[in-house]
Amino acid sequence: MYDVFITKASTYLPNEPVANDEMETYLGLINDVPSKAKSLILRNNKITTRYYAIDREGNPTHTNAQLTAKAIEGLFDEHFKKEDMKLLSVGTTSPDQIQPSHASMVHGELNIGKSIEVNTATGLCNSGMNALNYGFLSVKAGVQENAVCAGSERMSAWMTADKFNHEAENLKLLEERPIVAFKREFLRWMLSDGAGSFLLENKPRADSTSLKIEFIDFYSYAHEIEACMYAGCDKQEDGSLKSWADYPSDEWLKQSIFAIKQDTKILDKYILVKGAESLRSSFDKHNLDPEKIDHVLAHISSGYFKDGLREEFAKKGMDFPPEKWFYNLSEVGNIGAGSIFIALEELMNSGTLKKGEKVLLCVPESGRFAYSCALLTVC
């Protein structure tokens, strides 16, 4: 078994940052009416700018595969050329197509000129960590001598007004208020586009900061809790999900079946509590001392959860002081599977990390409440 190190990190954020008052210029107005929910959601999530892979007319400027490839290209240098890549492992919530796999499309964009092993992790925010874990285990076991891992999202194209206008028109026909349900509109004001990537190798770099991966742990609570965040389906009264394939095709647009939705009631009830429970399990499993942690990077979907998360961790005996937490949510937005990559890249390249420090990564996924965490040591 080999030690595994993140030897380089790279981020790609498309176009210019989009301010709060510009969002509907890019995403459009549902039913030609400004959103009444937008200001409340933005006030709570504390996001001030985000990035979109679309222009002001809603036209695409990048595919998800292109965003991911551009982030990965930043890993290539005199020490590691693209033809040196052995494994490509990527995760996303928002692939450009159902098939082929996202990793295959990214491989094609990179124009490496040779066959490599590819792996795609699907799901929600944890898909990036799942992709990282696949690369970590492959290098650790000696199956591959290096791995490129990435997390990315291109949610803007899912959130343009034209994706919701049919539902609003249908509500008019039913003589109801033509206002799209809050669970569908909520995420329009939360999500951002971008990609982050890591190079994993079995030796640290002598001339720059490397991070040794000590462990990556995963926890799912789907045996206890129904789905909270979902797309390509709709939730029934009993909490089950009805697949898009079981709806007549004319209902797909009328009910915004493919829109990504959030059940905010169960989100508030479980997301922080189960996050603290899962992290406590890892600290017990690895016999970790919370006081030995120097930096805490927690992916949160909204600034609304920042104080609550710290409080829930403290209740479980993991009281990390405010100065140890690192966030960039307000500047880059919620990039789902890419968020933890993008945050760690910023910290890793900030010049503030010191040899021997411990960096904790925490990633929640509200899909059906799954969590991951990882411990890194600065080399």
From TrEMBL:
Domain Thiolase N-terminal intervals: 65-165
Domain (Beta-ketoacyl-[acyl-carrier-protein] synthase III C-terminal) ranges: 284-364
Domain of life: Bacteria
GO biological process per UniProt: secondary metabolite biosynthetic process
Entry keywords, A to Z: Acyltransferase, Transferase
GO MF term list: acyltransferase activity, transferring groups other than amino-acyl groups
Gene3D superfamilies noted in UniProt: 3.40.47.10
Membrane-spanning segments: none
InterPro entries: ACP_syn_III_C, Thiolase-like, Thiolase_N
Protein name: Beta-ketoacyl-[acyl-carrier-protein] synthase III
